[in-house]
Write a structure and sequence with these properties.
This protein is an alpha/beta fold. It has one domain: Rossmann fold (3-Layer(aba) Sandwich). Helix content is 27%, strand content 36%. The strands form 2 sheets. A 7-stranded mixed β-sheet has the order 5-6-4-3-7-8-9, sandwiched between helices. The mean pLDDT is 96.
């Protein structure tokens, strides 16, 4: 059986010189790779007690939806500002060159619900930390964080030190 890293394409010098971009499109466009990714992420949650998944816009949706379906769990969305139609709560977070805002519907998470955050990538941890703040703002509990791949050198796990983080593949300065 192939390793999930075998399905991830590395593109040197994108989006700028010196960066090794880890491209997950090659995972999702390959049926075996996509199945392996979903299976691995789902298996990483086998011992986690949770009620629902919160997928990050937009690649987190690709992984959260099939996991929610397979496990018979609810799912909700963390979206960029202005993309949700009903009343929302929001959190601002820092990007490399500015600030971004994530929102979820105010009624998406009930107090006491245990939520797993799902995204394709853990880099600096900013997006996932913002998602955790949204869950907690609504009275939910972050039961865990599941990502397909982790860029270890960017130390995102340190930003998320208060949470259990599950990653299927780790890349270190490769």
């Amino acid at each position: 059986m192939k390793d999930i890293k075998d399905y991830i394409r590395t593109i040197p010098n994108f989006p700028k010189e010196g960066i090794l971009f880890r491209d997950i499109t090659t995972v999702i466009q390959n049926p075996e790779g996509f199945k392996l990714a979903i299976d691995m992420m789902q298996e990483s949650l086998a011992d986690v007690d949770f009620d629902m998944l919160l997928g990050a816009e937009s690649r987190g949706f690709l992984f959260a939806a099939p996991i929610a379906y397979n496990l018979g769990k609810a799912m909700t969305l963390a979206r960029k500002k202005g993309k949700l139609p009903a009343e929302t709560v929001s959190v601002d977070y820092d990007l490399e060159y500015g600030v971004a805002t994530l929102e979820i519907h105010k009624d998406a998470i009930k107090p006491g619900q245990k939520v797993v955050l799902v995204d394709d990538l853990l880099a600096t941890g900013g997006t996932l930390k913002a998602m955790a703040k949204l869950v907690e703002k609504l009275g939910g509990e972050v039961a865990g964080i599941a990502v397909l791949l982790e860029l270890v050198d960017l130390k995102g796990r340190e930003v998320l030190k208060d949470y259990n983080v599950y990653s299927c593949a780790q890349f270190e300065g490769e």
